[in-house]
Amino acid sequence: MEQVTLGSLTEWRPPTKEEAFFNNVVQILDEVFPDNWRAWVINIPSYNELFREHISSDLECRLRFAIPTIRLAKAYSTETTLSERRYKKIKRILLTWPLGRALIYAPLTIAAKVHPVQAYNKFSETVNMIKALLISRQEASEILKKEVDIDTSSNSNSSRATKRSHSPESLAPSKEPRIKFVPDLPCPLPRARPVCSVVTERACSSVVCGVILREIPNFRLSIK
Asked: Rounded to whole angstroms, what are the CA distances from 59 to 50, 63, 103?
């Protein structure tokens, strides 16, 4: 069986409508696989050599690829869930790619046909390293949905905060109690002058600067 490097399979050209998905998968491998992953030597069995003319539904369900599930879903589309139908479609696309078939790690009987004995350990170690990211479709779908709920809630709170900050009430000047300040001005002292006329017995009262002054009999109070 022909052997090539895993990196050479990244140069394979997928159908035009799958190019973005293919490039996204390669980018994921660059980020989560060891730096030398492109130099790994593998076998490149054809689809028929692995599954003959038809793949059983049971085998299709048991196929697993060494690509983090959530990132795989996002690489394919921006859908907020990972339905069973969509997951099947993703796996069927991967099976048509030489690179996709090279990433099968389960069932072991299929993986053994792709990876030579002397190179399988490197691939197996990498699978174990990212095992926590190789979750089931159901788990991935739940996480994707929660991410959307969190984003929606965050955007909603941000929107409400923005509306409050631009509301007429928030833009209006704060209403503070009005306090009338009366300056402490010097109070002029009254000047009295004697008069010759006789003053009536009734005293005359005058208010000057808040102080009540009562005239002394026989004097007339004059304020200038």
From this structure: 11, 6, 16
Is the bond preceding 116 in cis, omega lying within 30 degrees of 0? no
- Please say whether the beta carbons of 44 and 9 come within 8 A: yes
* Consecutive H or E run containing 50: helix 47-51
What does the pLDDT profile of the chain (224 residues) look like in tens digits?
789 999 999 999 999 999 999 999 999 999 999 999 999 999 999 999 999 888 999 999 999 999 999 999 999 999 999 999 999 999 999 999 999 999 999 999 999 999 988 888 999 999 999 999 999 999 999 999 999 777 555 555 555 555 555 555 555 554 444 444 444 445 454 454 444 344 444 444 444 444 444 444 554 544 44
- For residue 139, what are the contacts with CB-CB under 8 A and spacing of at least 6? 69
Residue spans of the domains in the chain: they are 3-156, 191-222
CB 47 within 8 A of CB 87: no
Please tell me the pTM assigned to this model: 0.67
